[in-house]
């Protein structure tokens, strides 16, 4: 079995509203899988459950065959799942390197006493983690932005910094919530290149996105959600011509 992520009958209700209903989805290791659907179809709720931000009402989430359904967000992150958010969440008072270093905290062995005494051990670890972040920025071709503040960067560049911060956890699986939202064609073309680069480095990606041209460029397989349920699955070409998908996006008049 090559599944790195699998959900079984995953369900989430908010009061009387069914956000996700019996969602069965698998993500194969080393692939880019898309999760698409109209606004309000339950995509972000799904990502929030997988990342531990929201608890499910029923069903299971398996990561490398390990049941993570009841785990906290930090436990899931430590296992090797990182994520970005629909709304960019960079720390405005930290520069690019500092924003990314936040994700490297788990790699420190220094304790509070080391911090208080500013020990040699702490200084060596800080140097090591700083260098690891610079190397990561070089992979993204963004090392010249290391000491810039988020508000100095264009929107698309801030998105790239957020993906770099997710990568700083050394994840096996990244959950991306609309990484191309609000971008120009040139900007999302660059994001596409970055995602393909990450895939080539062995990172598995589950992608939520509205921009169909972007999805077409990067995904290996697609699931379509509507009213919280999977209505179609397959390659992009297969789902693009699925009548149920066309109806979900455009209404009955499109048929």
Describe the structure.
The chain has ten helices and ten strands. The protein has 255 residues and is α/β, with parallel strands linked by helices. Helix 7 links the parallel strand 7 (173-177) and strand 8 (204-208). It is globular, with a radius of gyration of 19 Å. 35% of the residues are buried.
Descriptive keywords:
single chain, 255 residues, six-stranded mixed beta sheet, 10 strands
Would you tell me the overall average pLDDT? Answer: 90
Q: Percent of residues in beta strands?
A: 15-25%
User: Rg, please?
Assistant: 19 Å
Order of helices and strands: EEEHEEHEHHHHEHEHEEHH
Number of helices: 10
Strand neighbour order, sheet with most strands: 6-7-8-3-9-10
Coarse structural class: alpha/beta
Straight-line distance between termini: 38 Å
Shape: globular
Pick out the low-confidence regions.
Answer: none
Helical residue percent? 25-40%
Major pleated sheet: 6 strands, mixed
The count of β-strands is 10
Q: Please give the oligomerization state of what you see.
A: single chain
Produce the secondary structure layout.
Layout: E1 3-14, E2 17-28, E3 32-36, H1 43-50, E4 58-63, E5 66-67, H2 73-79, E6 81-83, H3 96-101, H4 112-117, H5 120-139, H6 155-167, E7 173-177, H7 185-200, E8 204-208, H8 212-218, E9 221-226, E10 229-234, H9 236-240, H10 243-250
Parallel strand pairs: 3-8, 3-9, 6-7, 7-8
Antiparallel strand pairs: 1-2, 1-4, 4-5, 9-10
